[in-house]
Amino acid sequence: MRVQVLEEATADLADGFRFYELQAEGLGDYFLDSLWSDIQSLRLYGGIHTIHNGYHRLLSKRFPWAVYYCIEDGIARVRAVLDCRQNPKWISERLK
Q1: What is the structure's pLDDT at 12?
Q2: Mean pLDDT across the chain, nearest whole number?
Q3: Which end of the chain is more exposed for a tag (fewer CB within 10 A), N or C?
Q4: What pTM was estimated for this model as a whole?
Q5: pLDDT single digits (tens) 41-85
Q6: Nearest Cα to 60, choosing from 30, 87, 89?
Q7: Phi-psi region for residue 20, left (φ > 0), alpha (ψ -120 to 50) or beta?
Q8: Per CATH, is 2-94 categorized as 3.40.190.10?
Q9: Is 68 helix (H, G, I), strand (E, B) or coil?
């Protein structure tokens, strides 16, 4: 399966990078490496994750973040990459 990361998801990753890089130098890079690995796993496992707010939700293995995606025409389209520690109401609004 092909994976397409939409612009808003790329912006979410950049926000996460900035946050973790402020915590410790190099942690932002580790965050990006981890999340991109999770996203690339959709090539094999896209579509098996539970649906939340109308999107499949892949929970990151190393960070408290989730990848929200949909399957269209055999392509896993990543719509958002969000911090699970956010208010659930905010996450629902962000995914609308």
Answers
A1: 98
A2: 97
A3: C
A4: 0.95
A5: 999 999 999 999 999 999 999 999 999 999 999 999 999 999 999
A6: 30
A7: alpha
A8: no
A9: strand
Helix then strand count (H, E) for the chain reads 4, 5
44: which 2 tokens?
Answer: 């094999």
In this structure, what token pair is assigned to residue 15? 């926000």
Q: What is the pLDDT of residues 2-34, one digit of tens each?
A: 999 999 999 999 999 999 999 999 999 999 999
Beta partners for residue 5, in sequence order: 78
Q: Round to whole Å and give the CA distance between 63 and 27.
A: 11
Q: Give the integer Cα–Cα distance in Å for 23 and 56.
A: 29
